[in-house]
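Priority: medium. Attachment 1 of 2:
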């Protein structure tokens, strides 16, 4: 019966002969298994250090009621939304260091609730924002001007770069011509050479 395949679990199967018969067979168990979960996307697609607690939305296929989301192997409080979406509450202390990836897995409950393949959620530093620069100017030829930056999103190891409008324009043309990734490699190479 197709309707019986809509619910996971064990079912007894017996065979009976028509009368006159001694009786039915001994029952044999037939199990309807939950499907394997599969993750197609995460929202947010990346997490910023210091962002605090948040709700992770996991999109995919094969989710069933009782599915759980795991964060690097630890189960999170999970809400089943539909066969294609679950959400999980992520506490702020779970966020690792920037540059780390978190393995996200969805596991359906037994019977045979296979876990999804892990999907990596990158953890990154926030983009810094400058709200105040002191001093805001200096005389031509001034030596050793110490700048103070106020703002948000600064982390240990942050650097400050000062450039002229001509330098900035040249860098933007290079980025447009060669792409952001090649530009980052170029700047890293130049910085490393400068620091030697």
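Attachment 2 of 2:
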């Amino acid at each position: 019966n197709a309707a019986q395949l809509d619910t996971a679990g064990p079912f007894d199967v017996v065979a009976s002969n028509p009368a006159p018969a001694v009786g039915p067979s001994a029952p044999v168990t037939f199990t309807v298994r939950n499907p394997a979960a599969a993750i197609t996307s995460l929202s947010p697609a990346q997490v910023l250090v210091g962002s605090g607690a948040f709700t992770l939305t996991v999109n995919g296929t094969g989710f069933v009621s009782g599915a759980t989301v795991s964060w690097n192997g630890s189960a999170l409080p999970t809400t089943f939304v539909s066969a294609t979406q679950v959400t999980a509450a992520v506490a702020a202390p779970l966020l690792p260091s920037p540059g780390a990836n978190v393995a996200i897995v969805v596991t359906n409950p037994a019977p045979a609730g296979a876990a999804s393949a892990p999907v990596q959620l990158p953890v990154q530093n926030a983009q810094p924002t400058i709200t105040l620069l002191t001093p805001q100017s200096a005389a031509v030829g001034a030596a050793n001007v110490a700048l103070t930056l106020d703002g948000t999103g600064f982390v240990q190891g942050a650097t400050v770069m000062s450039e002229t409008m001509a330098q900035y324009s040249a860098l933007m043309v290079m980025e447009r011509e060669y792409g952001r990734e090649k530009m980052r490699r170029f700047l890293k190479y130049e910085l490393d050479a400068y620091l030697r």
